[in-house]
Amino acid sequence: WIEEMSSAASTSRVLRNPLLWTALASVVAAWPLATLIVGDPFATPAPRLELVPVADAPGEGAVFEIPAFEHVSHRGDRFGSKQLDGRVWVASFFFTSCPSICPRLMGRAKVLSDQLAAAELPVDMVTFTVDPATDTPQHLAAYAREHALGDRWTLVTGEPGALEETIVRGFKQAMGTPGEGPAEDVALDIAHGVRFVLVDAQRGVRGLYDTDDVGIKALLADARLLVAAAPRANGKPRP
Known about the structure:
disordered N terminus; disordered C terminus; alpha+beta; single chain
């Protein structure tokens, strides 16, 4: 009994120790940051946002609208909302020298592109680089050839400030910057979105989708509804 009381008293003193609670508070505060740094960004499911499948009002139900934009495609021409308005498209974000998630993300984007083609859905794929300093049109063109991207898939680069305006303030997605210093001394990883963004014919964002099979299936179903709402516009070639 005496030993038990002594043990309880010792435990009580430990629990009352302010250094213990300070340490625990530090761990709890650091946990979200640690998860952000080392966690798998693909592991947390994205909410699927409900569509309003009304054929004569395809703009209804959009979460928000992407402002007009113009950048440069991997084909070297001006490319932006003028070429996409009236069409349904899927946006994604990457950079060619990405050391971590981009190869996986672009692999899943290729799966989506192939399934869109197999379903004969006239939906464009538009992938924005978050590293325009490196990803010039020529660099992106080489990437597109190497990975056999189809005619309906456009890689987009341009002036950094204008791209940031589109990605951060338009799509409300992250666009971080790599560390400064020699390339061999820094982890050249740039923050960016890792989900597909479905955009309707009026530049309205309809939802964010995970890149797994479930997310792609949901995106295909929703894209089909949007294409049905604007079939003539999506049948035209891009200007």
